[in-house]
Specification:
Number of helices: 10
Strand content: under 5%
Distance between the termini: 65 Å
Largest sheet: none
Oligomer: single chain
Shape: flat
Structural class: mainly alpha
Radius of gyration: 25 Å
Number of domains: 3
Bound molecules: heme C
Number of strands: 0
Length: 180
């Protein structure tokens, strides 16, 4: 390298390093924030979907409102006790469950998948059209801790809505369908 080029290169080097650093920071911020969105919250009882699925309990047994309303619903303490009064009632985590029952307290479950307030969503039309829980929530039956498996953003909702029979697309892609 001749002297002139070398000098130019030297003065350019800090800029290059700075730019690389900024790019790395921005990229890691994006990756970390996506992780945060898709992370599983800690729950007051170590409830395992996998164990209950293996025991043959159906999604709709615990989340029956999904068929008839906007929300799927989280089962009440009473529903858990209905089985656990007699089933594996000697296990530690089931003692924690009994604690809530005896104090008459609801279990303060942390939300796992929630839309922003300005989004309208209802389970009923989806279940009546035969869309499976797994299509939107991933493989919950293999989760020991419920976690958001799929990033449910607007593009994702619309992709499936555009895929519906032609005569329905205008209604399903209307902004007001999901932003009332
Ligand atoms: C024995 C009852 C039971 C069964 C069966 C069950 N669930 Fe759940 N589900 C719960 C409870 C309790 C919670 C709240 C605690 C948690 O998030 O782990 C929950 C949470 C969830 C959540 C996250 C809710 C939120 O707050 O965002 C989803 C999604 C879900 N269940 C889907 C399913 C699917 C799909 C199935 C079938 C494969 C299923 N569940 C079967 C009891 C059950
Ligand atoms: C078309 C996609 C889709 C399908 C199919 C679907 N869900 Fe959901 N589910 C969602 C979305 C989106 C939310 C967040 C709703 C909100 O915050 O308004 C949600 C929230 C939930 C919640 C927590 C809030 C609530 O409504 O109680 C549970 C529990 C749940 N779903 C269970 C189920 C189960 C069980 C099934 C199958 C029987 C199912 N979902 C099918 C998209 C879906
Ligand atoms: C339809 C019956 C039924 C219902 C309803 C039910 N469970 Fe269970 N649960 C079982 C069975 C069966 C097992 C044992 C699974 C195994 O270990 O084989 C179990 C196991 C457990 C365990 C022990 C896990 C471990 O580490 O050994 C906990 C904790 C638990 N359930 C919590 C709950 C909670 C909380 C609810 C209510 C949201 C609930 N269950 C509702 C049937 C039920
Ligand atoms: C896998 C496909 C699929 C996904 C993903 C999906 N939907 Fe749907 N959606 C449907 C189907 C099918 C219908 C019912 C169509 C009909 O009425 O025949 C529907 C209906 C609706 C309706 C009722 C519209 C009306 O006016 O009747 C709303 C609201 C809605 N979806 C919101 C959402 C939102 C919000 C999301 C994303 C969080 C979403 N959907 C994701 C397939 C999907
Ligand atoms: C099928 C449902 C659906 C339809 C139809 C829909 N949206 Fe959305 N929209 C969503 C969801 C879900 C979010 C939340 C995205 C998130 O949280 O990542 C959203 C978010 C937004 C936001 C917030 C900014 C953002 O991108 O996060 C704006 C603005 C918006 N939508 C405008 C519109 C407009 C304008 C239309 C009509 C052209 C429309 N939406 C149609 C589901 C829908």
């Amino acid at each position: 390298m001749n002297e002139k080029i070398r000098r130019r290169y030297r003065s350019f080097l800090p800029w290059l390093l700075g730019l690389t650093l900024i790019t790395i920071l921005v990229l890691s911020a994006i990756v970390l924030s996506r992780r945060a969105v898709l992370a599983a919250p800690e729950q007051p009882i170590a409830f395992s979907h996998e164990l209950h699925d293996d025991a043959g309990v159906q999604c709709l047994y615990c989340h029956p409102s999904a068929l008839r309303s906007e929300i799927a619903g989280i089962p009440s303490v009473e529903k858990c006790i209905g089985c656990h009064r007699t089933i594996v009632n000697d296990r530690d985590e089931v003692q924690v469950l009994f604690g809530f029952w005896e104090r008459g307290e609801p279990i303060p479950w942390e939300e796992v998948v929630r839309m922003a307030d300005y989004v309208y969503f209802s389970h009923q039309p989806h279940l009546l059209s035969g869309v499976n829980c797994e299509t939107c929530h991933g493989n919950v039956s293999e989760m020991t801790v419920a976690s958001p498996a799929i990033e449910m953003d607007m593009g994702w909702c619309l992709e499936c809505h555009y895929d519906q029979p032609e005569e329905k697309v205008a209604r399903l892609a209307d902004c007001l369908a999901c932003h009332k």
